[in-house]
Amino acid sequence: MIKPDMSVDIGGIRMQNPVMTASGTFGFGEVYEDFFSADELGALVVKGVTPEARIGNPPSRLVETPAGLLNAIGLENPGVEAVLKDYLPHLKGYSVPVIVNIAGNTIEDYCLVAERLSSSEVVKGLEINISCPNVKAGGMAFGSHPDMAAQVVRAVRKNTKLPLIVKLSPNVTSIVEMALAVEEAGADAISLINTLLGMAIDIETRRPRLANIVGGLSGPAVKPVAVRMVWQVAQHVKIPVIGLGGIITAEDALEFIMAGATAVAIGTGQFLNPRCCPDVVKGIFEYCQNNNIKRIGDLTGIAWKEA
Amino acid sequence: MKYHIPQALVTGQEKKAESTYLLSFHAPEIAKDAQPGQFVHIKTIEAYDPLLRRPISICYVDREKGLVVLWYQVVGKGTKLLSSLKTGDSIDVIGPLGRGFDTAISGEKIYLIGGGIGIAPLIFLAQSLKEENNITAFFGGKNKEQLLPVNQLTSINCELATEDGSIGHQGFVTDLLLRRLALEKPARAYACGPNGMLEQTALITRKHNLPLQVSLESVMACGVGACLGCTCEKGSSGEEGWVKVCKEGPVFWEDEVKLL
């Protein structure tokens, strides 16, 4: 039996396997320690960080939908200084690359957070969040216009030497146009998709179920949309693509890889199975063994490369 | 310690009044480590609808036999599926989760105030506190049938209240609490039940300077403090913001959360 090479490279971040956590579903790396070691991951992507502490949206913040989850957390986080002081040092003992998701209201906010995080020896990459649907300013506003997205990326690029991943919103007319804009602006990788904008109404109270009215849809319900977007983007950009959206099993992850993803990220799946990430790593490994795949990278984009 | 037991064996399920059920399953690790007030997080179906686990407070544990008992109410799709499980089926459980009741107390007079299915975690609490303390429970429900499992599960001293007066006092548990507080001063109270009952209880205990712990419920996704979905507003003892019901709770000192 062959021992497949599971390692991948995301914009200079070397990962032992292609499975990452999705920002906002794993805290700052501490919450799932009882279930598995973060060192079993390809990379650890921690919660979105803004310059100042944010308390996030009022409850209710969650609505379960068929095979999906609507959330409107609103980027609750302790702010970049507290993250540097109280959260990141805890991750020093791990060998897994740590990537921090960054967000803000203005371009200056993104630059400030990027610059501050670059001072941490723990941080190996940044994921620029221009796609959060649950905050009023910034977030998705930057993620729905190619020019604005490119401006953010260009500005952040000047403030850090760290590899930059740009997380794209699916709530756009042309995902390919967005991807090309951020690639041209200096992104080292692209992750997609963030959540799909949605809402739900309680027919008893006749009011929206989320206090924020709208929220982001994740879970298996969004997977086909995400796979389609990875397929489209991966064929147009040269930089690696991280695929996410509804991955629960290794089979789901392999679909994304075959659509063109170099790596995958797991979010909502973690809430169902606290060992989802290591289970997916194991499942991908076994698939490669059983199908005589020597390198996981050989499967990236195979669905269109061999068509 | 938290455990994930994807194949916990169901050892019994009994239907009780008001769409409530008593479910027991074999999970020795959880039975051994669980503290009163903690909960288990259950996947009710292998498929993806409902997608999320269901958080349910532990009602009773039998550490010798390694059993965990839940007394829960069917309120939606997930609990409906749970109620269809039979002896010999397996369930996917994570637990014990959350911060339970503060049980560092002995030689004291203690009150338990429970309404409806909110009585469940107080049974476990009574199980742990009754040896060393003098417990009085005020339990309320719709009718006599709804309160029947109480006798099956615990032998503590209970004063009952029902909406229809079919057993005990006709009215609210808080009526019983007020009446009793006129006669004596306990050291601490613990409550779990509908929000209205918790609010009324907090009003009374504040007036009597009686320390109160409450167990809250919330819609949850992860159950372990990762998703920040199950927030509840901070109370007078904290700054502006939210607490996570799953991780910092589900049990809080009354002033840690905003009940009123």
What's the arrangement of secondary structure elements?
The complex is a heterodimer of chains A (307) and B (260).
Chain A: E1 8-10, E2 13-15, E3 19-21, E4 44-49, E5 62-65, E6 68-71, H1 80-87, E7 98-102, H2 107-117, E8 123-129, H3 140-143, H4 146-159, E9 164-167, H5 175-184, E10 189-192, E11 196-198, E12 201-202, E13 207-208, E14 215-218, H6 223-234, E15 241-244, H7 250-259, E16 263-266, H8 268-272, H9 276-290, H10 302-305
Parallel strand pairs in A: 3-16, 4-7, 7-8, 8-9, 9-10, 10-15, 15-16
Antiparallel strand pairs in A: 1-2, 5-6, 6-14, 11-14, 12-13
Helix pairs in contact in A: 2-4, 4-5, 6-7, 7-9
Chain B: E1 3-16, E2 20-26, H1 28-33, E3 39-43, E4 54-57, E5 60-62, E6 67-73, H2 77-83, E7 90-97, E8 109-115, H3 120-129, E9 134-141, H4 144-153, E10 157-162, E11 169-170, H5 173-181, E12 188-192, H6 195-207, E13 212-215, E14 231-233, E15 242-244, E16 251-253
Parallel strand pairs in B: 8-9, 8-12, 9-10, 10-11, 12-13
Antiparallel strand pairs in B: 1-2, 1-7, 2-6, 3-4, 3-7, 5-6, 13-16, 14-15
Helix pairs in contact in B: 5-6
Short description:
The complex is a heterodimer of chains A (307) and B (260). Chain A is an alpha/beta fold. Chain A is built from 10 helices and 16 strands.
Give a description of the structure.
The complex is a heterodimer of chains A (307) and B (260). Chain A has 307 residues and is of the alpha/beta class. Chain A is 30% helix and 20% strand. In chain A, the strands form 4 sheets. An 8-stranded parallel β-sheet of chain A has the order 3-16-15-10-9-8-7-4. Chain A has a 4-stranded antiparallel β-sheet with strand order 5-6-14-11, with no helix packed on it. Chain A is globular. Chain B is an alpha/beta fold. Chain B has 2 domains: 3-97, Translation factors (Elongation Factor Tu (Ef-tu), domain 3); 109-215, Nucleotide-binding domain of ferredoxin-NADP reductase (FNR) module (Rossmann fold, 3-Layer(aba) Sandwich), CATH 3.40.50.80. Chain B is built from 6 helices and 16 strands. In chain B, the strands form 3 sheets. In chain B, strands 4-3-7-1-2-6-5 form a 7-stranded antiparallel β-sheet. In chain B, strands 11-10-9-8-12-13-16 form a 7-stranded mixed β-sheet, with helices on both faces. Chain B has a two-stranded antiparallel sheet with strand order 14-15. In chain B, strand 9 (134-141), helix 4 (144-153) and strand 10 form a beta-alpha-beta unit.
